[in-house]
Design a protein that fits this description.
Largest sheet: 8 strands, mixed
Helix content: 25-40%
Strand content: 25-35%
Radius of gyration: 21 Å
Structural class: alpha+beta
Distance between the termini: 21 Å
Mean pLDDT: 96
Low-confidence stretches: none
Shape: globular
């Protein structure tokens, strides 16, 4: 007979671990197992993201992102302070290039205030007092709550704390299928009262094995950042462009990491299989045939502007073009100072195959036996602690 648990969580990324943390807090005596196909926690998106804690002003008020980002920002900062983790509370400026973008700044301020985010429209002069190197058209949006953490440090702290609290981890353990409440893996079977799928790039595949997520497929996008190694002083705060509010990507921007390092990015380049970090890394013919075929259809139809997005993103492989996008937001920067790329990441982005549109908010499906976190896109890292509270409350997880 397989070993039985109250909860089995598939995936040890930030969502899986914060859910385990919240379940342990609510039900200290339950048996919890987290399985992961990799050899350590947070191997994929959770350790490869920018580390920015967002402030909650991009999102429309009726979205889960709007509901969870402001609270999640505060909770993650408190978690870092409690555990002595590095935190850089440098803030963020969103800058405009022209009058149309200046008007969008006001829409972002309106959204932010509705969501409870501390955001203010300030003059270009006031923006330069915060960041002397910034360039903007007449005004900028100032977000003092935006901060940076070290994702790997947070992941490691969560993993260690969960182990101390008797949460079990089974690494190098790949989900193979299920029968009833038993899941099958390359390391044998395990059973649980509740299966919680937090598998990121593979969440929709596992969900469909349970009969959920049938309207969706995963489209991966590769994110690259370029480090500025000349110094850490040419840019003091995060500087972002006005985003295209029709898609979930925020554009190339300046990020200040926890140690003050400056980097620009990310790209959002369509990938041809789910873990395509390098040209042929983790190659999967099956995934390529499905994903490349889906992307070809999106390209031909230009669904949600995919063709325009793909062409623009491919241009970012040209380093000079990539750097210029960021350089336009500052008075001066040395292009030769950008010398190395950071570890690439893959954004797990869900596509609705009926509407041919990207799913821009968190998406959860399930029943009394299994729960599937289908879409946990940015700012999932920021939201993670608040998201875990919400999921446990609204999906009756603590009642198992």
């Amino acid at each position: 007979m397989p070993k039985h648990y109250n909860y089995i969580i598939i995936g040890s990324g930030i969502i899986g671990m914060t859910l385990a943390r919240e379940l342990r807090r609510r039900r200290p005596d339950t048996a919890i197992l987290i399985i992961d196909k990799e050899y350590h926690a947070g191997y994929h998106a959770s350790s490869r993201n920018s580390g920015v804690l967002h402030a909650g002003f991009y999102y429309t008020a009726n979205s889960l992102k709007a509901r969870l980002t402001v609270t999640g920002n505060r909770m993650m900062k408190a978690f870092c302070r409690e555990h002595g983790l590095t935190l850089n509370e440098c803030g963020k400026l969103v800058v405009a290039r022209d009058e149309a973008e200046r008007q969008t700044l006001h829409e972002l301020e309106r959204r932010g205030k509705v969501n409870g985010s501390d955001v203010t429209i300030i003059s270009a002069q006031a923006a330069r007092e915060i960041e002397p190197n910034v360039r903007t058209y007449q005004e900028a949006l100032w977000s003092p709550a935006t901060a940076s953490v070290d994702p790997a440090q947070v992941n490691d702290c969560l993993w260690r704390r969960l182990k101390e609290q008797k949460v079990e981890f089974a690494f190098e353990t790949r989900y193979k299928g299920h029968e009833g409440q038993t899941i099958f893996t390359n390391r044998g079977g395990f059973s649980a009262d509740r299966i919680i799928n937090c598998a990121g790039l593979y969440a929709e595949t596992i969900a469909q094995d349970y009969g959920f997520g049938t309207d969706y497929t995963m489209i991966p996008f590769k994110g690259l950042y370029l480090k500025y190694t000349k110094n850490t002083s040419d840019v003091r705060v995060n500087i972002y462009p006005v985003p295209n509010l029709r898609n979930p990507f925020l554009g190339v921007h300046f990020t200040k990491t926890v140690d003050g390092t400056i980097k620009i990015g990310p790209t959002a380049i369509p990938a041809f299989w789910k873990e395509q970090y390098g040209p042929w890394e983790n190659f999967s013919l099956k995934e390529m045939l499905r994903i490349a075929g889906e992307e070809a259809r999106l390209f031909v139809r230009n669904s949600f502007g995919f063709r325009d997005l793909a062409i623009e993103e491919m241009k970012k492989y040209e380093r000079d073009y990539f750097i210029k996008l960021a350089a336009d937001m500052v008075q001066q920067i040395d292009p030769a100072g950008f010398t190395e790329f950071t570890k690439p990441g893959i954004r797990a982005q869900l596509l609705n195959i009926k509407t041919r549109a990207l799913v821009t908010d968190f998406l959860i499906e399930g029943d009394a036996h299994s729960l599937h976190i289908l879409n946990a896109v940015s700012p999932a890292y920021t939201c993670s602690l608040a998201f875990a509270e919400m999921v446990v409350d609204e999906y009756g997880l603590a009642a198992v």
